[in-house]
Target: DNA helicase
Amino acid sequence: MSAAVPTDDPLVRERAHLSSSRAALRAMREEVEALDIKDVTANWVNSIVLERQIEDRIKALADLSHTPLFFGRLDYLPPTQHGQRFYIGRRHVHDAQGDPMVIDWRAPVSQPYYQASKKDPQDVGLRRRFGYTGGELTAYEDERLSDPGELERTSRLLQAEIERPRVGPMRDIVATIQPEQDEIVRSDLSGTLCVQGGPGTGKTAVGLHRVAYLLYAHRERLARTGTLVIGPNRSFLQYIEQVLPALGELEVKQATVDDLVAHVEVRGADAAATAVVKGDARMAEVLRRAVWSHVSLPTEPLMVVRGSRRWRVPAYELEEIVRELTERDIRYGAAREALPQRIAHAVLVRMEQAGEAPDDRVQNAVARNAAVKALVKECWPPVDPAKLVLRLLGDAEFLAEHSAGVLTDEERKLLLWEKPARSVRTARWSAADTVLIDEATDLVERTHSLGHVVLDEAQDLSPMQYRAVGRRCTTGSATVLGDLAQGTTPWATRSWEDALGHLGKPEARVEELTAGFRVPSEVIAYASRLLPHMAPGLAPVESVRENPGAFEVREAAGAAGDSAGAVVAACVDALAHEGSIGLIAADARIAPLAAALEAAGMPYLSPGEETTAESRLTLVPASLAKGLEYDHVVLDEPAAVVDGEPDERTGLRRLYVALTRAVSGLTIVHAAPLPEQLEPRA
Ligand SMILES: Nc1ncnc2c1ncn2[C@@H]1O[C@H](COP(=O)(O)OP(=O)(O)OP(=O)(O)O)[C@@H](O)[C@H]1O
Model:
């Protein structure tokens, strides 16, 4: 530090702490890099594992110039924490003596940074927030929480972070997590939590930070059992994929529900009415009956020949063994595997009664005896889940038998293929079929359960899909995130209680987030006009953004649907501002708009592709807009977005999603009349 710089300038002192923290981080990294594992590893498997751990550790200790090492400071009042000062950042950094220089945001001592207030200072004297410009520490802001003379005020730095124009993929919000969000992030691993929140209330952000928190608080357990984030589609997963690595978590898997149940290739699509039946929870009962219908009770006695002796087990005893296995709470396949041993045991009992002393080896040999095998094959044949579903959808009699009293004739008709498929390989499976196959697979063999599952945009899942997700966390917990008003599938969730029941977590807590961080107030007010028409009972989001945002509705001259020129002009205007631009349109209008953009020489991206300074415009089909956000949105022809859906309610919900993607501004361009539901209420 130069002598000319006044050392009582807090900014100078904080910068000094930043550079010594960076030096300490460098030292930590160098220490790991210098580790010589030759001496400590006994074999090559160990050394490969260790090498990977070291590589990961080095990666985790990287000093990323665009992510500041710390973003806040807490000065505790003595005697709490001995009146210590803590710098809060994305990861823990310590000096050569092992004393902390930066504390991980997830550590318990960091929590008051998010939770303390003037009303409840939580023994904090000072909370300081830091502002950075291009990696340089340039500002700070103090709150003396325990000073009665200081008034509560909103943080400028927090506000600036919320207002910041968006560019590329989603970023972490670790510096500005709000108290109600923090409570969700840090809630216990043991319980399942469901978060209902309107557009832009931070559900996705909170879900991802919760994963990072849980991995910190229960690292070993979750490393063993695994964590999974489920999102609606690839573009969404690409949009969020950098958040967890930025928080130092590299190991979390991300998938769509379709990925999870990809037992067969999807090459077909269902009519909505058919998909509704296939997604109905009653299908679970149909499948259960169909799988277990393969079991038949033995009617003949069993004769096992060993050497010169013959052992006979009467039919009634075999029947009892089979019946007992069907009544136990085990999977079809596990019971099938247990059956030969049970039968062998019955034979062994007879051997013992005859004075023999058979051991385990004899029992195993009897279990493998041809007569026993034949009996098992007859009474408990193997079931192939895909073949079973193939038969249900192709064989009217088989379906009728197992859906009697569960489905109506009409529903059965909807399920049956017009032309039954010949084989699993050639069938034109739909997405809903794969979920049925997944259910059948689980009836045969228990699905592996993970430690924690985050399910985002949950409102679009069918009951059968909830079940598919639920069986992947039977022994773990889940965080379910969604907005009932954004449900756009014909089977969209009506109540979280129902959904949580299908998920197998009826005891889950439902929390609500209402503060909107994305959409400017004027835009959210406009979009919320749709709520009474498509999700009555849900309260509008309250925007916490101070900037009212730019909002404009442009009526294009010319015939309805002939507004491409005006749309291109709106995109040109939007590109005059910084940040990302999303041109959202009904799926059917994507091709003509793409042509118009190309004719105008304007390059554009597809959703999920990363925006750069040169390429900031993304052409987004309305069906893929969910969960995404752009700094400025140009929305093409709202009426076409509504008309693109099979019914009006779904159409209005799709429009609501499209209207709520903008951070700084929304321009609506239309030639056709706007949907009447967008009129202000009298
Ligand atoms: N505490 C916060 N501080 C700063 N920004 C935040 C905060 N919470 C959320 N945001 C920002 O608000 C935007 C919306 O968040 P997010 O996408 O998580 O909302 P959502 O509820 O999942 O929305 P949707 O229902 O539309 O999918 C994101 O840019 C996110 O970074």
Notes: Residues 90 and 427 are 49 Å apart (CA to CA). The mean pLDDT is 91.
